[in-house]
Amino acid sequence: MFPNTSSRPSTSQMNIGLAKQQGSALVIGIFVITVMFLMAAALVNILNDADEQVNLEVLGTRAFATANSGADAALAQLFPLSGLPADRVCAANSSWTPPDLVGFHGCTVAMTCKATTFSGVTQYLITSEATCAVGNCDGDSCIRVNRKVEVEARD
């Protein structure tokens, strides 16, 4: 019921036990440092991927807005705001240079227009394709995004 104090190990026996355990803390420390390093490397990789996804999303939004602006410019040529009858020239292939503003920087627009007449009604199909790029597109560090918008209009 009470502990046997007479069979307690001597100090020399305890020193032998400690001598056998020397170095295990070093191994555990190296293991913990290695695991922490691997976790930090994985976290940096995850953050880089998330950063690239945000860049692609922003560029995609800019390309979509640029394609919409290109379609608006083509519609303004077909149907001028002055109300005067236009020539209604529907160019098969054309390009629109966006203004040099922050949202349009690095973007180009290619447009196509196709006119179809049926029962005296002319229907126009305008396709505006915008490409926005950032980085060194001649080298390996280029991010390029493309968005396409189609608009139908009629007289």
Automatic annotation (TrEMBL):
The chain crosses the membrane at residues 24-47. It comes from the Bacteria. Keywords: Membrane, Transmembrane, Transmembrane helix. This is MSHA biogenesis protein MshP. It comes from Shewanella colwelliana (Alteromonas colwelliana). The lineage of its organism: Bacteria, Pseudomonadati, Pseudomonadota, Gammaproteobacteria, Alteromonadales.
